[in-house]
Predict the structure.
Amino acid sequence: MPSDNQTSHASTPDDMRNRVKYIRRLDQVEQLSAQQRDRLGPVASRYVFRANDYYLGLIDWDDPEDPIRQLIIPREEELLEWGSLDASNEESVTVARGVQHKYTDTVLLLCNEVCGAYCRYCFRKRLFMDENDEVTNDVSEGLRYVADHPEVTNVLLTGGDPLLMSTRRLVEIFEALRAIPHVRIIRLGSKMPAFDPYRVLNDPELQAAFRAYSTPQQRIYLMAHFDHPRELTDLAIRGLDACIRNGVICVNQCPLIKGINDDPYVLSEMYSTLSYIGCTPYYLFQGRPTAGNKPYELPIVEGWKIFQHALMLGSGLARRARYCMSHETGKVEIMSIDDEHMYLRYHQAKFDDDVGRFLICRRDDDAYWLDQLEVVSRVPAHV
Ligand code: SF4
């Protein structure tokens, strides 16, 4: 690790005492009745369950519709027929095991197959299945790929959650990436600040690594994942503050999820709080048609209305999110909708010719995904 002459922002002794306890079985959730556990057992067998005592403690168990509960407790409707396990065909952009290269400047390293808890609506739930081998903790092939591709300026560590890896391992990866001159931004795609704020607060070595490898010229970005304002507890805000004070730039991206944040006032409250604490909204994703996700999905038109309403309620810094579909062909932003048409634009594209391309589609209030829309005009970007 490079020498660290900057001021230390280590944790307090109070933080050091706190550790969350992880559980993987529904029968460990004592707030669920035996009958509920029996009913949900087959769902958890199909799509794995994991949670921890800190996050379960945010649930109001008197409210069966509680959004935090919806986020991690399985629902029977997950077994309804819906979508596919790899809805954005990530396989087609996989260039080596655990390495995805879809957009010219950014490579994804899927370096961990575990998360702090499992979001029920996860679009990568296939990674948590026993038979899956798309993830590798050994990133050496990914690092070689990145080193051989000078156009790659951003590397996203994802999975699963990279902050569940040991600090020693993360430091090795940071060090290896910083040895590749063309990699300027290291992104950490993580929901740990929501699931377990102690992960950063308890770890002065991780904080020191942030200071060492997030430099004025080349930052580490935390792509945080908060879905609901109730996740932004005082502890979570302190966890984010520990990232920011140690040189990490924080932004937030999350999907629009039925039953969790599909309310403009909820979304706007979260966006406003995120803007106050220095973790501005980046993307709001339309849910991918992923197997198991039927109960969590909303049609695009409905989602766009919620998003637009939420944006009208906040200040400029709370309005920075873009509402996008992470489609197989690119990140398609939903820009506007009128009585007849939907106006979309490729914010990022798999094929360079599509970058900035504008799509005019016939309005369809029942469509959930780009593939269901009738495109009436494709306007290339004129540069
Ligand atoms: S944190 Fe991300 S990868 Fe992990 S379960 Fe949630 S949505 Fe999926």
User: Anything to note?
Assistant: The radius of gyration is 20 Å. The chain has one domain: 13-289. The pocket of iron/sulfur cluster is lined by residues 115, 118-119, 122, 124, 160-161, 191, 225 (CB under 6 Å).
